[in-house]
Amino acid sequence: xxxxxxxxxxxxxxxxxxxxxxxxxxxxxxxxxxxxxxxxxxxxxxxxxxxxxxxxxxxxxxxxxxxxxxxxxxxxxxxxxxxxxxxxxxxxxxxxxxxxxxxxxxxxxxxxxxxxxxxxxxxxxxxxxxxxxxxxxxxxxxxxxxxxxxxxxxxxxxxxxxxxxxxxxxxxxxxxxxxxxxxxxxxxxxxxxxxxxxxxxxxxxxxxxxxxxxxxxxxxxxxxxxxxxxxxx
Length: 233
Hints:
Elements: H1 6-41, H2 43-49, H3 53-126, E1 134-140, E2 145-151, H4 155-179, H5 186-192, H6 218-232
Antiparallel strand pairs: 1-2
């Protein structure tokens, strides 16, 4: 689910307003250019019917074309503003993702503390130790077969996983803003930012960027698509 805080919403509103402005100027330019073309198409017949109309027709056509050029320039300026606003959306989103990640990490730590206290009470009451275990099967690239390993899991682990995904999304956004492309692996993120990702194990290239889930937010996906469209024009 997309993170939609007030700062992100406001940044999106500004971006969309710039895009709407560019579209409005484009429509005005198209209208002026269409009128000029239509006038040009009937100019010969009009001049043959009345030679004195030539000067007026030329003046009207030139005026319409100049207006179209002015509106084209205004549309281009609005598109630049929209482009900058779209990048600001990503910067704001990355900051908000980091805030939410920190909030979730804090919640996970609080939960772990509560579990530890409850566990201590239970062990004291029952006079034995309690351990939570979950079996999971992992693909071992070396042996080419599945191996079952036992991990210690709990609610906090899931929260931590969610927080790590949010952090990764923020890093992927900043990486794309800086390099104009996605990182190839989590190793790239470790090198570009704080090395917080575990890239050990069977990943020869340093762990895939989708290790925790989809690392590309909707806003980044839209920005990437817009950049691709602009290159094709």
